[in-house]
Specification:
Strand content: 15-25%
Strand order of the largest sheet: 1-2
Distance between the termini: 47 Å
Oligomer: single chain
Number of domains: 1
Radius of gyration: 16 Å
Shape: flat
Length: 79
């Protein structure tokens, strides 16, 4: 709206099994009334993001990110 860009997208990135975030995104989306030219809103799972990073050739980075944010085995072993 300020004229500083011609297009944009607001994207939430969250693990697909984080139900709290996924529910919040669904609720938020229901309240959006996007005027023409507004920044679009979208959500992508962290799993899809890391898979995309791996496909670009950065498999090691993708694996490290996935282990850090999506692998709950270390937490499960404590709980």
């Amino acid at each position: 709206m300020s004229g500083l860009y011609t297009a944009g997208r607001f994207t939430v990135v969250a693990p697909k099994y984080n139900r709290n975030v996924q529910d919040a995104v669904r609720l938020y989306r229901q309240h959006l009334a996007l005027p023409q030219g507004a920044v679009e809103f979208d959500v992508i799972s962290f799993d899809d993001l890391t898979a995309s990073i791996a496909r670009t050739g950065a498999a090691e980075l993708a694996q490290a990110l996935h282990e850090r944010y999506c692998d709950f085995k270390p937490v499960d072993s404590v709980v």
